[in-house]
Amino acid sequence: MRCQIFRSLCRPRSNRVSDLGCIFYCPSSQRQRLFSTTPRRNVRTTEMTDEQLAAVKIDRERLWKVLHSTCEWGKGERWGDGPTDIGMSRLTLGDADKQARDWFVETTKSLGCKVQIDAMGNIFAVRTGKNEGPPTYAGSHLDTQPTGGRYDGILGVHAGIEALKTMNDLDIETEYDTGVINWTNEEGARFPISMISSGVWAGAFSLENAYKLVEVGGKATQKSELERIGYLGTLEASHKANPIGAHFELHIEQGPILESSGGKIGAVEGAQAYKWFTITVRGRDCHTGTTEFQNRSDAMLTAAKLILHSHNKARADGCLASTGILKLRPGSTNTVPGWVQFSLDIRSREDATLSKLEEALKKDFERIANGEDVSGVNAQGTKGRGCTVEWQLDTDSPATKFYEDCIKCVEESAKSMLGTNAGGQVRRMTSGAGHDSVYTSRHAPTAMIFVPCREGISHNPAEYCSPEDCGNGAQTLLGAMLRYDRYRAEKGA
Amino acid sequence: MRCQIFRSLCRPRSNRVSDLGCIFYCPSSQRQRLFSTTPRRNVRTTEMTDEQLAAVKIDRERLWKVLHSTCEWGKGERWGDGPTDIGMSRLTLGDADKQARDWFVETTKSLGCKVQIDAMGNIFAVRTGKNEGPPTYAGSHLDTQPTGGRYDGILGVHAGIEALKTMNDLDIETEYDTGVINWTNEEGARFPISMISSGVWAGAFSLENAYKLVEVGGKATQKSELERIGYLGTLEASHKANPIGAHFELHIEQGPILESSGGKIGAVEGAQAYKWFTITVRGRDCHTGTTEFQNRSDAMLTAAKLILHSHNKARADGCLASTGILKLRPGSTNTVPGWVQFSLDIRSREDATLSKLEEALKKDFERIANGEDVSGVNAQGTKGRGCTVEWQLDTDSPATKFYEDCIKCVEESAKSMLGTNAGGQVRRMTSGAGHDSVYTSRHAPTAMIFVPCREGISHNPAEYCSPEDCGNGAQTLLGAMLRYDRYRAEKGA
Ligand SMILES: [Zn+2]
Ligand SMILES: [Zn+2]
């Protein structure tokens, strides 16, 4: 068999590389070695030609198989007939999350990684590179929403592990350490601040406050659960104590833009701004049968008006507004609730637009609760005795801009993979959702890779990313990490 | 001391009657006896003149004191500085309800009553009368809303006990048995069908279905809790096995009409019709940050529109509409809920008006959920992918008309008590709320007595009925029961 690259006879070391030809094991390359018998590896990123780099390929089948095998832990609702047509319910720090974490640690250790756990339970698995310096990571999360899918977060972590496996298989020596991070409680579904753990790492939240977070509908705290499942690590959760050289995150788009435009890879330039509020409406409990509308202070009716108005106003301003949680008291069919609390999530690409929306809603909510008409929501009802509205800011995530050099590595990797079709299939995008990369970008060069997911559905059991798109994403991720490693060597950092 | 009625010298038997003069103990009346030494009682209702009847007075202080002493069991939120300015949270069949029940049984037994408990835990305490025939009852309930007050239901039961105490004190012999009923789970707050137990008695619900009711937010059933607290009685819960001769229910108005019109006693002619529904809105969970409005099936936003529209439409039709319970899934700040369920309580004085409203809302809800505009609720928002709406009827209580003869006894009793002022202070009313009397009226002569409560507030810790109004109500209740007893004797039933 003749090597197509080095134009010589070759001898593939394993089945894995047979389709790649002989690029790393060709006798003529003078570098044929087995990792197990020598401390020096086969090939350095800085010595690879673009052609060689393009030939480094992940094992797409392995990625798919391993990803779904680990989705046994915390599996949720079945939504289709296929073997993987089952959602996920792997809330952070629960028993299923512990199983997934244990698997992560074992697997990365078996790949030769050094594994460390920090005080927030974030897991850092590092594969040794040639030079000193903070690692170039692939990072994402293994936790899910209560009714989530198999790709959000999970794909990014698995793609990172597949990247390390491929580096091992091909015996690639990186200039700097590379690694994979599993961030704790990205979703904020159980302990209700999302990305809290990369947030602590970035210094956006104190460890103390993060530890105190109480689970929704329960009593456990983030700290008590970390302790319970054995993931309260000793490494300081801090960008200073544990710096990151670069952070690449592969993620499903969670929106329909790539799919509807025929795009394959999104090179994510940044993330939209968002704020999360808890809105408390206070009225007065009263009997539903004996209290005329004009004598009511109906907190539920008021909340309904506020939710509708937040939608109408956000639409007018080109923003998003959503309510995902609503609680009321006392909670009886024949008692008008005197207390309602709901979450309000508002988003915009621009910080200034978001602030404008926030200010407008604050004024409007008060007027609506007082019975004044704003944009029609009080136009037809009976004016009651009014309610009060209180705002509490829970999360403030300004618009984020990722690192141009990282974004370029993503673009180059994607274009190399897609070849001649790459033109329209790689596009720059803005993330609608928050991600751990938003926090890592505060202290480390960061970029994200988006792949399409069917109909843009996410945070839903039926979330789906095809084997082809999962593979494309993981391949782009590995290529971006290797390219960034070369880039660091050139820059000398 | 000269008797003002019999114009002779008298010798009061106890302090209790000293202010009444000597009407029952005057030597000249030839009927001075002690209950303990003779099976025959002192005075028969049929032999009492109107003047004598007017002189039979309850002990208002005792009523107030006893009522509040029993409110230690299940006390709720403090809302003022006074010793009784504390709400109630005595959910049916809980431990506090058991204490109140035990007190009820002991107290009525100590008054010489025969006490029976039926299969729904309803307690019937009966004081023996002269003739055979079903008892004339005062009935109401000792359970409360989770954030209820001290008067709703509780006043009616205590007034009944005070009526029996007064009959004992004055050694009154009734023609027919008299008694007090404590109905189980009137509120429907814990097991979510209100008046379920008088409903089973009336044949409106099967015992089997009532037993199966599961508590809101828990797993216990009505039957398991009846067993647990020892109130699963052996008497059949049925109007056939355990008939009622007449049912009088004293209750706070739970609305502001009496207070704002200077009324003292409401002679209640009937109750408005109402229906309770559980409305389920189904959409699709999706990520709040990545899903544009047009791609959403937002069940929470849809529910907000439906709740607002139910209010607007009910107002236009002169009805009431209220939502007291709302649940959603999955319940995470950054996930648009794909599932919302809420209660809808609609009410009207007329059955036909209520049916018309129901039909209109069924059509409108479907259109609104589909994104069509109905009365402006969809006028400004972005049309999404739509949701479905499902209706489940939980309770159907048609408009009720009480018994004219019972209502007249209430009016006469109230006018006799109020004397010269009675003119504008006694008024006929319709009940806005459902009460156990609605079910008793299906099989027994029934009427209700309303007394004012401050600002019409009820189902709220700050619910308040003054000592004067509590006393007026209990006095009217006793007078109505005695008058009805005479009326039964005249009619011979
Ligand atoms: Zn994610
Ligand atoms: Zn009541």
Automatic annotation (TrEMBL), chains A, B:
Residues 274-369 form the Peptidase M20 dimerisation domain. CDD domains: M20_bAS (cd03884). Pfam families: M20_dimer, Peptidase_M20. It comes from the Eukaryota. The keyword Transcription does not apply. GO terms for molecular function: hydrolase activity, acting on carbon-nitrogen (but not peptide) bonds, in linear amidines. Gene3D superfamilies: 3.30.70.360, Zn peptidases. SUPFAM superfamilies: Bacterial exopeptidase dimerisation domain, Zn-dependent exopeptidases. Keywords: Hydrolase. Belongs to the peptidase M20A family. This is Amidase. It comes from Hyaloscypha hepaticicola.
